[in-house]
From TrEMBL, chains A, B:
Protein name (database record): Nicotinate phosphoribosyltransferase
All copies of domain Nicotinate/nicotinamide phosphoribosyltransferase, residue ranges: 151-348
Signal peptide per UniProt: none
Pfam families listed in its UniProt record: NAPRTase, NAPRTase_C, NAPRTase_N
Domain Nicotinate phosphoribosyltransferase C-terminal: residue ranges: 353-456
This enzyme's EC code(s): 6.3.4.21
Residue span, Nicotinate phosphoribosyltransferase N-terminal domain: 9-130
Biological source species: Mesonia mobilis
Catalytic activity: 5-phospho-alpha-D-ribose 1-diphosphate + nicotinate + ATP + H2O = nicotinate beta-D-ribonucleotide + ADP + phosphate + diphosphate
Family that this chain belongs to: Belongs to the NAPRTase family.
Keyword list, A-Z: Glycosyltransferase, Ligase, Phosphoprotein, Pyridine nucleotide biosynthesis, Transferase
CDD domains assigned: NAPRTase_A (cd01570)
Amino acid sequence: MFNYSLTYTDLYQLSMAQVYFLKGKADEKAVFDYYFRKIPYQGGYAIFAGLQDFLKQLEQLSFSDEDLDYLKTQDFEDSFLEYLRDFQFKGNIRACREGEVVFSTAPILQVEASLIEAQLIETILLNLLNFQTLVATKASRIRLIAKDKTLLDFGLRRAQGPGGYYASKAAVIGGFNGTSNVVVGRDFKIPISGTMAHSFIQSYDSELEAFRDFALKRPKNCVLLVDTYDTLNSGVPNAIKVAKEMEERGNKLLAIRLDSGDLAYFAKESRKQLDAAGLSYVKIAASNQLDEYVIKSLQEQNASIDIYGVGTNLVIGKPDGALDGVYKLAYAAGKPRIKLSESLAKTTIPHVKQVFRTYDTNGQFNGADAIALKNEDQPKQIHHPSEPFKKMNVENFEQEPLLHLVMENGQNLTTNSSLEEIANFSKSRLALLPLEYKRFDNPHIYKVGISDALKQERDRLINAHKS
Amino acid sequence: MFNYSLTYTDLYQLSMAQVYFLKGKADEKAVFDYYFRKIPYQGGYAIFAGLQDFLKQLEQLSFSDEDLDYLKTQDFEDSFLEYLRDFQFKGNIRACREGEVVFSTAPILQVEASLIEAQLIETILLNLLNFQTLVATKASRIRLIAKDKTLLDFGLRRAQGPGGYYASKAAVIGGFNGTSNVVVGRDFKIPISGTMAHSFIQSYDSELEAFRDFALKRPKNCVLLVDTYDTLNSGVPNAIKVAKEMEERGNKLLAIRLDSGDLAYFAKESRKQLDAAGLSYVKIAASNQLDEYVIKSLQEQNASIDIYGVGTNLVIGKPDGALDGVYKLAYAAGKPRIKLSESLAKTTIPHVKQVFRTYDTNGQFNGADAIALKNEDQPKQIHHPSEPFKKMNVENFEQEPLLHLVMENGQNLTTNSSLEEIANFSKSRLALLPLEYKRFDNPHIYKVGISDALKQERDRLINAHKS
């Protein structure tokens, strides 16, 4: 739906690019890492999402005449603008598979391209991957708690403008079953759902008449909203009447929906009324400010809810609202590069790299990822990147490289996976992560360390800059 | 940049529309209110933004063949899909002016259209207005604290996907001076700014060489980023050398930028070094996790910062992330409509309405907005909408109606105001709001009440539904 333009970027990318161009550095090769520093929601893991959209956008990114005319008004040189006219990304990208379980510090994706190319795609890369990873991670937390209940995204109205498009999509990667968002259903083949608002019932003089018309004219997957006036004395009894009438026509009411009040209480009482009327097949859907904590509480109360509709908290990734993903130069002009900081934790990790995941003897994730030089063998021990005396032996664990070539010379190498395939992959990976990393309160910290060789190189660069 | 499709909506809008259509209610008139319940950021006011974009989208909204083909797979009836093929919004809209200072409960906008039209535009309306109002309000809080300092939006990389487009724009309505977001600069004629990232400096063997090349090839509005290796011992001294070289070429360094560490301390020390070198004209820009509270603290410390670059916290409207704006049916089929709730505060206010703002004798906002029936004269007293015994006399205050006709039969009546005009209007309105409503901690609560006539009507409907 949305085609990004190359002007969907920060001005400084273009300013830097002009300097590189005019100084003859246009073709100088560089390597950038994409990673994040802090796992969102004080959680123990994140779900990497957005890769396929990013690669798709990369293949079509260019500057339009309108863009170039505009840039001419912003003090760019003609020769540079002519260069931009033919600009296309022709670099290489290595990345984790979309849906992978990822942790802070280790590169999730590496871009290897000319300095200009790598710089011009930075903002779009961060914009797309940060947000989708944030939402997929939120969705995955909700899925963990909701077990096999149906999870639907209802968030579009409170989403951050057109950001809602990717939110509904990323939610499915994290384990949601469907969305109310029609265009996303169309574009990504996601099941869509939703039936009526309170306004529908209000527009009739009688709630019963409103239910009747709806069941008659939209009988498939019919869900009746029962809390417009009085849930237990009006909404549910009227829904039961209409469900019985539907039975006579050979239809079945799918569910009633609760959207206010104490959901645990109203669900329990509604369930009783439905069961007493012989409508045990009619499901109960609930919505209203849900998130993983409210759903956890409802589940703990055995709240008779079969379908959760989650809105705002999901699509804006509340409370974080943003993943702090960054894009840092690791290699340029034939040399590894570093950025220092007052704290070692914010000092970057230089060089072209590979990330290894370690496995225990049961084939579960072993609680440690190893960042190594790209051409290194599997690392034997890893060092904590900011606490110099913390080490861990990883020699005897099975290891798997996580970064795979996904784009070569600007060509997308990934097969166009369906969203369902990505979601299934994510689910299978999350199944390998032990429970202690998944709990909401103070999850166990997954270790991410650097190899001997990488540590040596990093220490060397730190010392060189300090002297 | 983004053209919304009418499928950028919740499925239930289409489900309800089909029932209205098949039951012959397609042309039944309805009135919906747009308002919010909770002022964001625990603040005392909000800035209404997004109206112009919304009206522009409304004029072009339709269903494409692709949309209709997709809907056919979702159990919609052919006759209804044929109706949608020619669908265009032809209703009327009354709204506050964009940039207006607004409060909870009172309608900011009213849609008067057929039930189907009003329903089909709901999701896009909420999606656009909620988000822009959220960000404009955030920007306005930052502007209040930053006084006449320059405020720049740097948030695109952490924005919620394409939501970043409207975020950068709404920030200007709230008082920001510019953005790093190039496409928004192009589309809305906003000043754009930004110079270099750490990667630019890292890509050179020497920080000084990097600064030199940049100053030479991008001399206008040149800002040097001084914290890549060591701010006070390397970054600032190198910037001073390059500033002097620029002077020899007749150029002037605009600013240095700090992006880490204790900004108050580094700004003060940098200022000393710059002044000692005779570079008192060189400004200091600061960025890194800023929001209104951090800037308040920096201002209180006289931190020598001239330019604030605000990113994530602005563009995602942190910590709220969403405005809880709703769209409620107030009138349909010739009758006022109400939705009850367990609490009076969530019970809707029925009828076609007007909102009056009251003024004190100095021409300042008087701390009370009055919601009245549309055709009523100026109300004499107002009642708290959820605390029955609270009343206020407003008879002797000058009053101004806030809802103006902005769209008639689908035609946009607003002149296409520039963003600057909207921002200026907003500034002039905010100047009329007394300080006690603007403070961050426990701001005074602006009263919003309903007129005698409206209260009578509402009570009548509540009682009718209860019996």
